[in-house]
Amino acid sequence: MALQVLAKDNILLNQQVATKEEAIRLAGKLLVERGNVEPAYVEKMLEREEITSTFMGNFVAIPHGTDDAKKEVKESGISIIQVPDGVDFGSGNIVKLVFGIAGKGNEHLDILSKIAISVSEMENVEKLVAATSVESIIELFEGVN
C-alpha cells in the first residue's frame, strides 16, 4: 500500500540546512503550505523534538507534533526533506532524510510504520538520499510499501 498522503509538492530535494530546528521548520512549512496542518503544528514539532529526539537511525529523522497537537492536523500528510550533506540532530546523529508527518486521528501510527519499514533497509535510504527527482522518491515508496 503506497503512502497516499505523499504529494509531489511535499518533497524537497538537495536542501542544505544548518540545524535540526531549521530542518524541522522546513518540513513543517511544507505541511502548512499543503493544508495538512495549522501553523501552530510546527511549534509542536519542535516541542516534541525537545522532549525526545525524532532521530531514527539510518540517517533518518521523523519529526512530528506532540500528542496535544492533533487538533492542529487538518488532514494526514508527509513532507520529505532530502539533505545529502546531512544535518546534526544532536549527539552526532547525522540526518540526510527528514520526514515531517501529521496524522489525522490515529493515522500517524500507520504513516510512521510505513516510513519505518521503508527506511529500515540502508539500501532504500541510500536510494532516497541519491534520488534526483521527486518522482523517483515517490516510486521508491510505492515499490517498498
Describe the protein's architecture and organization.
- It is a single chain.
- The chain is an alpha/beta fold and 145 residues long.
- It has a single domain, classed as Mannitol-specific EII, Chain A (3-Layer(aba) Sandwich), CATH 3.40.930.10.
- The chain is built from five helices and five strands; from the N terminus they run E-H-H-E-E-E-E-H-H-H.
- Strand 4 and strand 5 form a beta hairpin.
- The radius of gyration is 14 Å and the shape is globular.
- It starts with 5 loop residues before the first strand and ends with a helix.
- 40% of the residues are buried.
- The mean pLDDT is 92.
Biggest β-sheet strands, sense, barrel: 5 strands, mixed
The CATH class is Alpha Beta
What fold name goes in the CATH topology slot? Mannitol-specific EII, Chain A
Task: Classify the secondary structure makeup into a structural class.
Answer: alpha/beta
CATH architecture: 3-Layer(aba) Sandwich
Keywords:
145 residues, alpha/beta, Mannitol-specific EII, Chain A, 5-stranded mixed sheet, 5 helices, 5 strands
